[in-house]
Amino acid sequence: MDTWSAAVMLFLIMDPLGNLPVFMSVLKSIEPKRRQFILIRELLFALGILFLFLFSGQSVLNFLNVEQETVSIAGGIILFLIALKMIFPSSGNPSGLAVGEEPFLVPLAIPMIAGPSTLAALILLANQSPDRMVDWSIALAASWSISAVILMFSNVFHKILGERGLVAMERLMGMILVMIAIQMLLDGVTKYFIHAAGAL
């Protein structure tokens, strides 16, 4: 896989367009002046975590004795809970935060940007070709930059779609997120049983 193919793959996994409704829903009760700061902060947090996993993800998992399938199962459960709140909204945000409460790391940086699938993909790239870390770093920086630009201009999408359009998009993305979460959970469970069967 070349650098740009890796960048496209990471961008598709990050899915900034699919994450737009979640970001806007989480930030809608925050004062407009603070939204940009919070968004930049969460994006930078996510970038730091992504680079951390690219260079030392497998070592961290080995140290904690955590398998990649465990990360997939945990991420699937978290995304499923967020998706349910998107489809059946309460008075708060899909993240479970109180109205006006600022998100910190969860759920914007993790798992919306630096999600289990993205982290697993980075670990896979690093393990397959550890001599091409510069290429993978460029791919990660490029995919993150494009995602950041899309999320930073979320207000433009708000003006184009309107409030009802965003609500409909949020419900639709919630349904899609449920399917992604269940697939992620099933993949983790399947890999776990295959791994367990191979150990016997």
UniProtKB/TrEMBL annotation:
<feature type="transmembrane region" description="Helical">
    <location>
        <begin position="172"/>
        <end position="194"/>
    </location>
</feature>
<keyword id="KW-1133">Transmembrane helix</keyword>
<feature type="transmembrane region" description="Helical">
    <location>
        <begin position="138"/>
        <end position="160"/>
    </location>
</feature>
<keyword id="KW-0472">Membrane</keyword>
<feature type="transmembrane region" description="Helical">
    <location>
        <begin position="104"/>
        <end position="126"/>
    </location>
</feature>
<dbReference type="Pfam" id="PF01914">
    <property type="entry name" value="MarC"/>
</dbReference>
<feature type="transmembrane region" description="Helical">
    <location>
        <begin position="73"/>
        <end position="92"/>
    </location>
</feature>
<dbReference type="InterPro" id="IPR002771">
    <property type="entry name" value="Multi_antbiot-R_MarC"/>
</dbReference>
<keyword id="KW-1003">Cell membrane</keyword>
<feature type="transmembrane region" description="Helical">
    <location>
        <begin position="39"/>
        <end position="61"/>
    </location>
</feature>
<keyword id="KW-0812">Transmembrane</keyword>
<feature type="transmembrane region" description="Helical">
    <location>
        <begin position="6"/>
        <end position="27"/>
    </location>
</feature>
<comment type="similarity">
    <text>Belongs to the UPF0056 (MarC) family.</text>
</comment>
<dbReference type="GO" id="GO:0005886">
    <property type="term" value="C:plasma membrane"/>
</dbReference>
<protein>
    <recommendedName>
        <fullName>UPF0056 membrane protein</fullName>
    </recommendedName>
</protein>
